[in-house]
Amino acid sequence: MSATDALPSRPGSPRLPLPRTQEQMLTWVCVFVPTLALILFFGYPLLTIFWHSFVLFDGTMGLDNYAAIPSTPGLVTAGINSVVISVSTTVVCLLLGFPMAYALERSRIPGKGWIRLCLLLPMLAPSLVQGLGLLFLLGRNGLVFRWTGIEQDIYGYWGLLFSNVFYALPQAIMIIQAALRNADARYYDAATVMGATPRQQFFHITLPNCKFGLLSAAFVVFTITITDFGNAAVIAGNYKVLATEIFNQVSGQQNFGMGSVVGIILLLPALVSVYIERVSSQKQFGGGSENRIPLQPSRARWRDTWLGLIAHLTAFAIAAVVVVVVAASFIKLWPYNMTLTLANFKVKISSGYQPIWTTLYISLAAAVVGVVLLFMLAYGVRNLHGRIAKAVYLLAVLPVGVPGLVLGLSYIFAFNDPAYPLHWLYGTAILIALCNFYHYHTQGFLTMMTGMRMVPQALEDAAACLGGRVRHVMGDAILPVIAPTVLAVFFFLFMRSMVTLSAVIFLITPQLNVASVSVLHLNENGFVSQAAAFSTIIIAVVSVAMLAMRGLVHYFRPNLAQGLA
Amino acid sequence: MSLELAHVRKSFGDYKALDDINLSVGAHDFVCLLGPSGCGKTTLLRIIAGLLQADAGTLSFDGQDLGRMPPRLRNFGIVFQSYSLFPNMTVRENIGYGLRIRKTPADRVAARVDELLRLIRIPDMAERFPWQLSGGQQQRVALARALAVSPRLILLDEPLSALDARVRSEMRQEIRDVQRRLRIPTIMVTHDQEEALMLADTIVCMNNGSIEQVGSPQVLYDRPATSFVADFIGLSNLLPMDWLREFSPQTLSEAPPPAGDGSRWLLCVRPENIRLESRADGAATVGAVTFLGNLCRARLHWGKRELVVEQTAAAASVEGERIQPVIDARQSCWVAA
Fold it and tell me: Is the pLDDT of residue A4 over 50?
């Protein structure tokens, strides 16, 4: 036993040949396939939208589309309206969102579980049930007019504002909650010992530490609102906004160049919001260190009374607009003949229940394809280092910055072009599934990466050293730990695909319709109760999916409590 | 000699993790790779396991080249610091895992697992899941799992670092007993010098990606080769030649320095090898005295330097006392600066 330092150290010792192991091969395949798909189904379509913004009516190139913005009828008004409605929605969502998030995280108000449930409801339905619900409550054929005889015109600014707030508020609350959650009790203990009053603690500790959360919530709400299609189509009436205008330019007037210009305009706030989100996620409360002492809200009757009142009333309103749609679907002739019936579920439009089956098929396809590609990508990126890994990562998180409307439009440009090798996908359900998957790619990818990071390196190494092949490492070390994440991503993609509207609106054809768009069409054609019935079916499917997810994720949760000391 | 490493190098980008590592491990040796964090010891262990690929150099086991061999074919056992038991498998399934994927018949797997459960002395916990075990028990299971496939070499990656102090010393004893009994060559990574001194037949002391010294614990303590080893293993006073010439010329004549440039050498004097004589005209004063139970450790102000001295508690000096220190030159050695 000795160091063999007697051997002369040769400067050019033989270089070990790099073995092409199974693992390395797998890593490359896992990175290559999803990245190629990202380029084909996200990168390239997005580029076409920039390209088309320079293509003029006569087929020549130029900046005329941009120059024509001010003279295009309605476009300037729609732009101003969009900004006005989005800013108002953002302000209202922050004013209501902060007290509600604070009530949920930092107070002892009763019925928090109930409030959380109410906030969950808007996520289970397409972003047009708020508009639909408001019509059932406050419209010309609404409950309020029927009962009181007071008539108000709900179409327009106020209707849209309420719908948008009810839709976006739960998401704002979630972001602000996250910013408030990771506080360490010791900050407040230290402040108390130094003599700070509760009010001073609020302004010196709480508020500064969640300002990025508030900023992030503001940009997310702004982006959701300015790019949302569903509620605007249902309740905006003559109040024209960009989202509906882009649809009219493309679908109605076949003005693709102008449509892509508006699309690019809509891309800007979304990209800013993504950037803010990234920055704020790094600057929040303490980063959630392992040994933090969680904050126990103290008793404060006056505070909890007011917060409780605001939170419960708002949650009630958010739930009410959704619940009223479900209720109306079982009513014979809302609000005149309130007898219960299942007649509304006998759909009279030609395609019948076909859109529901199509949507189920699309959602399942999006979830299956998505989970497989995201798992591969997360596995590959994890085993990859350096510049390539960074580039792939960036591409994978980019889709969150692209609103559904813009993505849907880009799919028309890319896949409706007979010269594109993948043109044959145009008009198929599988293309809609892929569009939905890439619409929600970023959230799925980040969740999958988080799950992948939870797999202890030692577990993989142990399996390899004990004689495991790649499939053993995969099956015995990685999958048991990541299974709940895979399930969560699967159901996330499924549920989003069930309810999404803004991207698919461009891709449906008379032969290929999806449920959320059917609701829109039924409503436009005056079949309001049947629109409600369709919404109810969507809500039911998504609710079942969510319950299944909760159960399965809990069941497959591995117990990693192997912290030794 | 079973494991042989020659001229192994590894870089991560610009960072040299390992620089020209040469090492051989005997057939029944317990070798500790000892060094501060970031010295490359874990990188070296992962290269030996096959989990990392060296940039250059050769690895062989009993003459067989390991360079292109994936970890699963090396038949080495490995135990990690923590989180390495399969969370979805019971203790029995965890221990039998290596045998099962080698397609060993079920009855033989069961027999082997029972044998190992007795060896690690937790026979009644076979059906529990990892999270139902204490930290010490988990590490025993991890050790049993590594032993189950009768490995040619056992690799231990800081297996005791995550355990609390009492369990750690128990496990230390356990690992030592098992290794002595089975006589499987073992390489353990640790940053804990006490652990290394107690367990190892041979300590490989590493620093900055290179091996500083290889030797028995005794040799590393009594005859460190470099100032880093002298400093890292135990306490030492490192005294330059000029200082000795001025304040303790007698030591220089008793322990003649190596030839050549004197500034390249330091005399390593362990704290217990300085004797203190209480004298009013002594050259040094006693500084802070720390009581350690059986020993007292005193700081000594001597010739503008601060030295550390250990005495039995009974004979301890008191702070402020003037004393004459006497260096035991025969117990001291010259180390490269």
Answer: no
The parent domain of residue A502 ranges over: 20-52+346-556
**Pairwise CB contact (< 8 Å): B22 & A563:** no
- CA of A380 vs chain B CAs: smallest distance (Å): 17
Which of B88, B189, B205 has the most A C-beta neighbours within 10 Å, making it the best mutation to test the interface with A? B88
Question: Which residue type does B290 have?
Answer: T
ipTM of the complex: 0.79
pLDDT of residue A11: 37
Cβ distance B82 to A558 less than 8 Å, yes or no, reads: no
Interface test with B, best of A2, A24, A390, A466 (most B CBs within 10 A): A466
CB contacts, 8 Å: B11 with chain A: none
Instruction: Name the 3-class secondary structure at B264.
Output: helix
- The per-residue pLDDT for B336 is 87
Q: How far apart are CA B285 and CA B307, in angstroms?
A: 11
Do the chains contact at A13 and B7, CB–CB below 8 Å?
yes
What is the DSSP pairing of strand B295-302 with strand B305-312? antiparallel
Same domain for A352 and A323, yes or no, is no
CATH number at residue A152: 1.10.3720.10
pLDDT given at position A121: 93
Answer positive or negative: Cα dihedral of B114, B117, B123, B125: negative
Q: Kindly state whether residues A255 and A363 are assigned to the same domain.
A: no
Within-domain flag for A338: no
pLDDT single digits (tens) A365-400: 999 999 999 999 999 998 887 788 889 998 998 898
Contact list in B for residue A451 (CB cut-off 8 A) is: none
Say yes or no to pLDDT of B99 above 70. Answer: yes
DSSP string, B269-280: E-GGGEEEEE-T
CA distance B82 to B171: 14
Q: Do B201 and A1 touch (CB under 8 A)?
A: yes
What integer pLDDT is reported at residue A350 of this predicted model?
64
pLDDT of residue B117: 93
Number of structural domains in chain A: 2
Of A16, A465, A467, Cβ closest to residue B56: A16
pLDDT at A561 over 60: no
- The two beta strands, B237-240 and B265-269, are antiparallel
Cβ-based contacts of B71 with chain A (< 8 Å)? 461, 464-465
Residues of B in contact with A557 (CB under 8 A): none
- Residue given tokens 């043109």 in the structure block: A423
CA distances from B150 to A183, B78, B185, B299 (A): 50, 12, 12, 51
CB contact (8 A) between residue B56 and residue A456? no
Its pTM stands at 0.84
Q: B87 vs A468: CB contact, 8 Å cut-off?
A: no
- Give yes or no: residues A44 and A83 share one domain: no
Residue A114 forms part of a structural domain: yes
Average pLDDT over residues B97-119: 93
